[in-house]
UniProtKB/TrEMBL annotation:
Gene Ontology CC, one term: cytoplasm
Spans through the membrane: none
Protein's UniProt name: Asparagine--tRNA ligase
Keyword Protein biosynthesis: yes
Origin organism lineage: Bacteria, Bacillati, Bacillota, Bacilli, Bacillales
UniProt-listed GO biological process terms: asparaginyl-tRNA aminoacylation
Localization per record: Cytoplasm
Keyword RNA-binding: no
EC number: 6.1.1.22
Annotated ranges, domain Aminoacyl-transfer RNA synthetases class-II family profile: 130-430
Sequence similarity: Belongs to the class-II aminoacyl-tRNA synthetase family.
PANTHER family listed in its UniProt record: ASPARAGINE--TRNA LIGASE, MITOCHONDRIAL-RELATED (PTHR22594:SF34), ASPARTYL/LYSYL-TRNA SYNTHETASE (PTHR22594)
Xref: PROSITE patterns: AA_TRNA_LIGASE_II
Entry GO MF terms: asparagine-tRNA ligase activity; ATP binding; catalytic activity, acting on a protein; nucleic acid binding; transferase activity
Amino acid sequence: MKITISQSPKNEGQTVTIGAWLANKRSSGKIAFLQLRDGTGFMQAVVAKSDVSEETFQLAKSMSQESSMYITGKIVEDTRSAFGYEMQVSDIELINEAIDYPITPKEHGTEFLMDHRHLWLRSKRQHAVMKIRNEIIRATYEYFNENEYVKIDPPVLTGSSAEGTTELFHTKYFDEEAYLSQSGQLYMEAAAMAFGKVFSFGPTFRAEKSKTRRHLIEFWMIEPEMSFVDHAESLEIQEQYVSFVAQSVLTNCKLELDVLERDTSKLEMIKAPFPRISYDDAVTLLKEKGFDDIEWGEDFGSPHETAIAEHFDKPVFITNYPAAIKSFYMKPDPERSDVVLCADLIAPEGYGEIIGGSQRIDDLELMTKRFEEHGLAGEAYNWYLELSKYGSVPHSGFGLGLERTVAWLSGVDHVRETIPFPRLLNRLYP
């Protein structure tokens, strides 16, 4: 019977065959210990000379790292390992012997590992990060499907910019100018007017020449938009969603969090509601913490976000930023026209902003004025302006950056480890 490593607990006492790669090994006299991986997990296989043919034992001792095999044996309990089970081997069939595998158990530099990203993904640490990423994606679909959202896929090639910035990748679309999408939001607003509650999940691109540990050139965004939902209701949805995802990772990725030595007590605290602090109060707090150079009307940088987050033991919403530093589509506060109904969700432990969201403008006259102020008049935006013209309603939305969220929940230092093949300022390979 052929099984996977992850199915081993259900097959205790059975003799099974697993297709696997050799992650590492050690031998001592008449016994060899093989560390196996098969994509679903890692497990030790014990090859005793007395239990196998001489040929099989010599194969076990001589096989090189990352060689592939079919390995047969009995699944037994192993209380010493985190996985809890191991295989007592009876036979090995070598499929392919890997010669001179470049990533050995010794230490390697980051650039070397990034050059060999296609192989680095096989390591136990990278496997754990990718499994956590997968769980965040799975939990995202579960949350939005259970709450009656419809998944809509916005285009990657667009004729306009969602944020009205110049940090865009230009391309030719036959005889027209086009851009790689930096957000699906505008299209999701259109979808929300058709389906009520929608979400997208897809790649976005920012031509931002940044080298920080929080930035990627290509990254993935989860972007819900909701009709008949105001700013306060949106904040509640955001904190419920983030809490759901965090608790799903805690429940379903125990082994992976253990591999990464993640302090899970920090994750156990991620439960709604989250604290809120206004931009005004955040500026005051920063000045009290020694940031004398920050002035009202300036955007916060990473040190500012970290200092604010350290004041709380959960993710924190910074609300009501100045209108002048936020996007054209954000609805002004009815009681203060100089600030908008928006919020950034700042993760603890120095991971920075993971969500940006707002209530959107639903008034045609104001939206037209915003278009003029931001120089967005033109045919490329006519369709978006029509959303305010034909049956507009109060509506809100937000975008969560997947890679920053993976970094935060898994506890890794740099977002380059949170996406299978990162695109950085100076990296387009592999």
